[in-house]
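User: Some background: our group keeps a shared notebook of sequences we're curious about, and every so often someone picks one and asks for a predicted structure to add to the entry. Today it's my turn. The entry only has the sequence so far, pasted here. Could you supply the structure so I can complete it?
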Amino acid sequence: MVKLIEDILNYIAMQEASSLLKNAEKMVGKHLLRMISINIADWLRLENKRDIWMKEGKRSKSKPLILNYNYPWCQNLKRLIEEDEFFSKTFSIEGNELYYSLHMSNEDRQKAKHLAGERYDPPLMR
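Assistant: Of course. Here's the predicted structure to add to the notebook entry:
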């Protein structure tokens, strides 16, 4: 679901929930959804860099996003993947590791990583 990734990137920039994110925002609130979105975008951006490095012949491989359930955003990301239709079609969790869902094609995974690499500019923390 590349559309969810587009909407996540827009949510970070505009802080307005699209139709795909309305339920998620209702479930976890604005602040936690923003934290979840930033962490997903950071991971996808790094995955895009890893792809570039591999194409350049550097040793690199795709890695999951490691979750620490001591943090509320990790707990709520797991909840979203378990309960939200769009998150569950896009991501999966095994133990404490976030992966792409098996429902997501390799082509869509590449598009999602590229989109994050091109459009995501990490916000400054104040």
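Suggested note for the entry: Helices lie at 2-14, 22-28, 30-55, 72-83, 85-90, 106-119. The chain has a mean pLDDT of 94.
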